[in-house]
Design brief:
Jelly Rolls, DNA-binding transcription factor activity, sequence-specific DNA binding, transcription regulation, Arc Repressor Mutant, subunit A, Helix-turn-helix domain-containing protein, 4-stranded antiparallel sheet, AraC-bd
Length: 304
């Protein structure tokens, strides 16, 4: 008889997707039924190398698996799933709620801006919600994020940024009365490898525009490039260079979508010595030239 725990845990972007991050945004929002219905209400254990989930369950039940612990929970509640945390869900068919997903660069930005109040996003946990003004405010914030995400309007990026900051503060207030390191059962501590991966992702975020070599990154982390690559492949299912390229590609998509920079200016801002090198890099990873991608985004925008 096989044991599921022995099988490798898949690493996904959004559950069930193998494409790159689906939009140039660093944030994604959808209703929980929207995706879980596609998987018969059962999201099998998996993890994300560079995404943070915040699930707001307004009503319904969920069987939650979080880093080896299992809980049967009833809404309303909120669940926080940091990057690289093994997690799975079995939802009741009457589940109502939303999942807000933050790309790691956005989570890092929140950490810099909010400091201690962003700590809640780095700890796998769940928080039951009582009928209190604080719980109602949190539910209203999630609804606002969902509405703003689905209906683009002038100032959308700034509004989403403000709402996500407010959500992180609301979550920190929710977690504070219980403490983040109390005596109740919590998921197991992540091993040293996860810490190295987190540090590598932080270095990518700080330096990706200079496009350092993998050897340079490894040197800063105090390890060999072979060790860094093995670590990335084990925990993120990608090479160290692929992780750097994904961050470059994400920034390129954002700039092509949300700025009026020329292709040459975008290439220069991302450390490419020639626009032609950037165009080849972009087309190899997306199947589209930067110009074609920008045109497609401008045509798609009203429908988003």
């Amino acid at each position: 008889m096989s044991h599921p725990a022995q099988a490798p845990v898949p690493v996904f972007k959004l559950y069930g997707e193998t494409r790159h991050w689906p939009t140039p945004d660093l944030l994604h929002c959808e209703s929980i039924p929207e995706r879980s219905r596609l998987h018969d209400w059962h999201i099998r254990p998996h993890r994300h190398a560079d995404l943070v989930h915040v699930l707001h369950i307004a009503s319904g039940q969920v069987k939650l698996e979080l880093e080896g612990t299992q809980q049967e929970l009833q809404g309303p509640l909120v669940i926080v799933v940091p990057a690289m945390t093994i997690h799975g869900f079995r939802f009741s068919q009457d589940i109502e709620g939303h999942i807000v997903t933050l790309a790691q660069p956005l989570a890092e930005q929140l950490g810099q801006r909010l400091e201690e109040q962003a700590r809640v996003l780095r700890h796998a946990d769940y928080h039951p919600l009582t009928q209190s003004p604080q719980a109602r405010r949190l539910a209203a914030l999630v609804e606002q994020i969902d509405a703003e995400y689905r209906q683009p309007a002038p100032g959308r990026d700034r509004m989403l940024s403000a709402l996500v900051q407010a959500l992180a503060v609301a979550l920190s207030r929710l977690a504070e009365p219980h403490g983040l390191h109390d005596s109740s059962p919590r998921p197991r501590q992540r091993d040293r490898g996860h810490e190295h991966l987190t540090n590598f992702q932080a270095l990518i975020e700080a330096q990706y525009r200079q496009q350092p070599s993998v050897e340079r990154f490894a040197e800063q982390l105090g390890m060999s490039s072979a060790h860094l690559n093995a670590l990335c492949r084990r925990l993120a299912d990608r090479s160290a260079l692929q992780l750097l390229h994904e961050r470059l590609l994400l920034e390129a998509k954002r700039q092509l979508t949300y700025t009026n920079m020329t292709i040459s200016q975008v290439a220069d801002s991302l450390g490419f010595s020639e626009p032609a090198y950037f165009t080849r890099f972009f087309k190899r990873n997306t199947g589209l030239s930067p110009k074609a991608f920008r045109l497609r985004q401008s045509l798609d925008e009203p429908a988003r």
